[in-house]
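quick one, 245 residues, struct below
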Amino acid sequence: MVGLGHEQTATGMDPLTSSMKQWNQWQLLDSILPTGGFAHSFGLEAAIQAHLVSGPQDLYHFALHLLENTGSLLLPFVHAATVSPDKETWHKLDRVLDATLTNQVSRKASTVQGSALLRVAAAVFVEIPSLKTMRDSSLGNRGEVSFHHAPIFGLIFGLLGFDSETSQRAYMFVTMRDLFSAATRLNMIGPQGAAVMQHQIAVVVAEVILKKWMNHDIEEACQTAPLLDTVQGCHGYLFSRMFCS
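---
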């Protein structure tokens, strides 16, 4: 009799490996993971104070533009890091993204969250020693490595054995999750309303945006919502603020 630990799934994958990947994915997407994502609003706080967003309908359109911009600008970096999860590729992607981001606020938000994500992942996923090795060897090169979030997100998913489509869909989900968390704390929408709107966007629009921008090369990365980038860049000038960006 063959033990459960040696059974194979239809794809030839050990079921224990398959189940562990699911646990890892859920943990990476869990809001309790201390990566600092909830300290950022993606420019929503500045947009509210600039009266560009004043209600749920405006929030809905803001979310659509944010997802479109995330897909066009950041998914290429997530994709490239997932399919080639090695130190050399990661450093190259990090340098390119640092040169691509156009304002100090978004650049700092990206590096702070990316650094936190890699620190936590290296501590949590000890079965992937290369995470800690790459992080430790890069900390001494802070002038060369900025630790941007999108490439690190793809790097971690790639090292954990996830395919690129999963990592890119997960990145879009995390973006939506953090945006609606910020919207709730800014009293733009209630918790239940935020959950309903997030689901509506996910099933109607987000998947379409994902398919549109999935698997693009980094040479195709671009801004599709420059106004969002401009508004987020003004965040540092707000007299009072709850979020870091």
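Residues 1-16 have pLDDT under 50 and may be disordered.
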